[in-house]
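R.M. (postdoc): so does anyone remember the format we settled on? I'll just put the C-alpha cells first.
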C-alpha cells in the first residue's frame, strides 16, 4: 500500500538579532479643527413673489423658494394628491391644474419647473 507523503515544510530562518526600533518623539496633538458652517446662498433665501394662480396654494406673501416648495408639498400631502402607486407623480386638483398648465398629472421633478413659471 502506498504511503502518503507529507508536504514539505519551509525551513524557518533564525535571525541573529531582533531589529532595533527607533524611538521618535510624537508631536503634540493639535486641537480638533472646528467645523465651519456652510454659508447659505443668499439667492436661495431671497423672497420671491408668487403670482395670483400660485398664491391660491402658497399664499400671496413673498417667500424664499425653499419655503414656497415646502408649502406646496404641505398642500399636496394635506389633500392626498401624491399618486398611490407611483409616488413620484403628483395628481392635480383644480388649483394645481392651473399651476401645472392644465396637466392633470406631473412628476415631482417637472413640478418645480412648472412652478418657477409662476413666480416673479
Amino acid at each position: 500500500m502506498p504511503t502518503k507523503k507529507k508536504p514539505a515544510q519551509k525551513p524557518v530562518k533564525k535571525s541573529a538579532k531582533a531589529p532595533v526600533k527607533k524611538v521618535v518623539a510624537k508631536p503634540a496633538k493639535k486641537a480638533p479643527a472646528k467645523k465651519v458652517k456652510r454659508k447659505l446662498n443668499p439667492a436661495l433665501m431671497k423672497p420671491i413673489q408668487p403670482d395670483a394662480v400660485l398664491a391660491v396654494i402658497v399664499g400671496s406673501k413673498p417667500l424664499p423658494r425653499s419655503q414656497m416648495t415646502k408649502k406646496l408639498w404641505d398642500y399636496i400631502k394635506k389633500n392626498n394628491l401624491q399618486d398611490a402607486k407611483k409616488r413620484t407623480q403628483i395628481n392635480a386638483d383644480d388649483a394645481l391644474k392651473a399651476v401645472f398648465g392644465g396637466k392633470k398629472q406631473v412628476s415631482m421633478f417637472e413640478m418645480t419647473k412648472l412652478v418657477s413659471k409662476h413666480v416673479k
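R.M.: ...and that's the designed sequence above, right after the C-alpha cells. Also worth knowing: Helices lie at 42-45, 52-58, 65-78, 94-99, 108-116. The first strand starts at residue 89 and ends at 91.
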